[in-house]
Amino acid sequence: MAKKKLVVLSGAGISAESGLKTFRDSDGLWEGYDVYEVATPRGWNKNPALVLDFYNMRRKDVLDAQPNEAHIGLAELQNDFDVQIITQNIDDLHERAGSEKVLHLHGEIFKMRSVADESLIYPIKGDIKLGDVAEDGAQLRPHIVWFEEPVPMIGQAVPLVRQADYFVVVGTSLAVYPAAGLVDFAHHAIPKFIIDKKIPGDGVNGIHGLKIIEKPATEGVQELIALLRGI
């Protein structure tokens, strides 16, 4: 018998417990940087060296981080469900925990691309420097969706959510769009779960069949696993 489809939307809260910092709840600063200086096309055009240095540091942070119990718990659910992860995170902790189907909405820290041709994408574990160019001769930049840029992978995420038998949100309070809007594409009647340390009522009111688990991701995923086993 085919496994039921479990679709998980994950956000910064799940990676925060692995020690990866987020700009959320920090007055628009990320590791002491104004996010608009390091995570927008405007910032890139103004000072590309600063942006490259910032993401080179983020890449080192991710290399040093390890998957936590939330990442591992979601990967273990593959034993019982057809699990699809849709993540807002740019790290690879879901993959390292063992999740086999991971869609990155906002890009990946271990990839870089041409500034001129978005289809020229390459793996990267070290640093990107000014003067490093793609095969088209254009400067390489992080393969990251910055603020004020479109989110091209959202088009692939929507049909995945439509197919879900269960929909889970973990480590995000449904405040970052367009990702937050994915919950609207989950079938009205299916069970839905949201796991986050702080869940604003105005963000989740009116979502049918929603179970709220107001806990950190590591604790909340364990509660989710127990609930799913009881269904």
General description of the model:
The protein has helices spanning 12-16, 35-38, 41-46, 48-64, 69-76, 93-97, 154-162, 201-204, 217-230, and strands at 5-10, 29-30, 33-34, 82-87, 102-104, 107-114, 121-123, 140-144, 166-170, 192-195, 210-213. Helix 5 (69-76) runs parallel beside helix 9. The protein is an alpha/beta fold and 231 residues long. A six-stranded parallel sheet has the order 5-4-1-9-10-11, with helices on both faces. A three-stranded antiparallel sheet has the order 7-6-8, covered by helices on one side. The relative contact order is 0.18. The chain has two domains: 1-20 and 67-106 and 151-231, Rossmann fold, CATH 3.40.50.1220; 21-64 and 110-144, 2-Layer Sandwich (SIR2/SIRT2 'Small Domain').
Task: Give a quick set of tags describing it.
alpha/beta; Rossmann fold; 3-stranded antiparallel β-sheet; 31% helix; 231 residues; 11 strands
CATH architecture of the largest domain: 3-Layer(aba) Sandwich
Distance between the termini: 17 Å
What's the order of the H and E elements? EHEEHHHHEHEEEEHEEHEH
- Give the C-level CATH assignment of the largest domain: Alpha Beta
Query: What count of helical segments does DSSP give?
Result: 9
Oligomer: single chain
Rg: 18 Å
Question: How are the elements arranged and paired?
Answer:
Elements: E1 5-10, H1 12-16, E2 29-30, E3 33-34, H2 35-38, H3 41-46, H4 48-64, H5 69-76, E4 82-87, H6 93-97, E5 102-104, E6 107-114, E7 121-123, E8 140-144, H7 154-162, E9 166-170, E10 192-195, H8 201-204, E11 210-213, H9 217-230
Parallel strand pairs: 1-4, 1-9, 4-5, 9-10, 10-11
Antiparallel strand pairs: 2-3, 6-7, 6-8
